[in-house]
Specification:
The complex is a heterodimer.
Chain A (H helix, E strand, L loop, with lengths): L2 E3 L5 E2 L17 E4 L34 H4 L13 H7 L21 H4 L13 H12 L3 H4 L12 H12 L5 H11 L15 H14 L3 E5 L2 E4 L1 H6 L3 E5 L4 E5 L10
Antiparallel strand pairs in A: 1-2, 1-3, 3-7, 4-5, 6-7
Chain B lengths: L1 H21 L2 E6 L6 H12 L18 E10 L2 E9 L6 E3 L1 H4 L5 H24 L3 E7 L7 H12 L4 E6 L8 H7 L5 E3 L8 H12 L1
Parallel strand pairs in B: 1-3, 1-5, 5-6, 6-7
Antiparallel strand pairs in B: 2-3
The chains are: A alpha+beta, B alpha/beta.
InterPro entries (chain B): GTP-bd, P-loop_NTPase, Small_GTP-bd
GO molecular function, one term (chain B): GTP binding
Pfam family, one (chain B): MMR_HSR1
Chain lengths: 265, 213
Amino acid sequence: MPHQCIECGRTFPDGSKEMLSGCPDCGGNKFQFKPAGVMDSSEPDPTTSKSPTGSKSPTGSRSPTDSDPPTDPDPAPGFDSSSEADPERPSSDPEEPSSGPGRSPDTTPPPDPPASSDPPGSPAPTDGPDPAGSRPERAAGTADPDTTDPVEGDAERIDDEEPEDTAQASARSDVVSPDELDRATRETGSAATESGSVEPPASQPGVDELRDELNEQFESIKIVSPGQYELNLMELYDRQEYIISLQEDGRYVIEMPDAWGVTDE
Amino acid sequence: MGLLTSLRDSISRVTDGLFAADEPKRIGIYGPPNAGKTTLANRIARDWTGDAVGPESHIPHETRRARRKENVEIERNGRKVTIDIVDTPGVTTKVDYKEFLDHDMDKEDAVRRSREATEGVAEAMHWLREDVDGVIYVLDSTTDPFTQVNTMLIGIIESQDLPALILANKTDLPESDVQQIANAFPQHETIPLSALEGENMDEVYTKIAEYFG
């Protein structure tokens, strides 16, 4: 669980929107970032890139660029939602070093009791501009965002065996079902329409650009290493909440809309 | 019920209008790091209130928190304009502590400055969204204005329909190229100045009164 409330210790999966309105348990607004690989450590690795306000950890779930070249350079792997990209997804979980053969995504997600009760997926659709930004990636990278999402599927899907199996079966097959294709297309919008099929898109650079663009949208501040930051100005501008304090070792404080009396946009 | 609602709306509009007329416009001074934003803010504040806004420095990201100078009353051609000046941290897409190491700073201080500067950019972007009524965009006329930051910020400002005054600063330097700035943003008027030397401040004040009055 990459995020933890430093008041009560409650953890949140990376990409959780719950914490953006304060800790549901204690109301605290101070969180620390805990990459999945150092779950038990009280000091997260500051060199790990993270997205404090936002969505996805580049080391874990944001793997389209990682999986890009090896999968299939030609037919736009990130958007070829049928065969290659999907099985790669679960294996990119930082918890599991194993990748490639013998993958068993059903058992890959580490059981995490605190988050099992969380519904990280549920608040997302109503929360700010971020879901709009993160959904296309999930839809683009996975055939079925409801079943194989590496972030949301991390914990709460663990006991949901049936959809996982379905997703795997689907992922191993060559052709995506019309239903899934339709859903993925709807999720990604017009940008992915042409590449939503198994046919290669017109031009690879266009897809790469789009992927880069999408990746950029997921983070407002990327901590490259202590003292080195990359900022996504559009994301910072678009957010209602914003980071008011970055601290050492992955801690940060966000200002919440409630605190300044803004109810909606 | 409908009558009551519309009556309440009308009253609310009238009172809003009254308060709006009384309240000074909040003008954000934006731009990339080291463009001379604080120098300009101090120049304006000193000229009209006698006080400064904040310390100036040649080290980038000297301003890491937005600073405000309220009720700056500028008089131009018999007309008074009251504004609040918000001097914001320089906006950038990358902050690296290593760039501070050259300025006699140890690593710990440089890392802290870097962190604060990053928070400052987040704050500046937030202010742009929530809290400014107009923008003075300051550019260093000795550097190339065609940058991602400038394009993005000017785009945001335009999308917000905020009145924006573009200033080409540092005209006292020999390599200053005001035309380059004017060419970069032809849809806006570009005013040359040297905030440090006080050159062309008369025109700047006239334009401030015109744009934000």
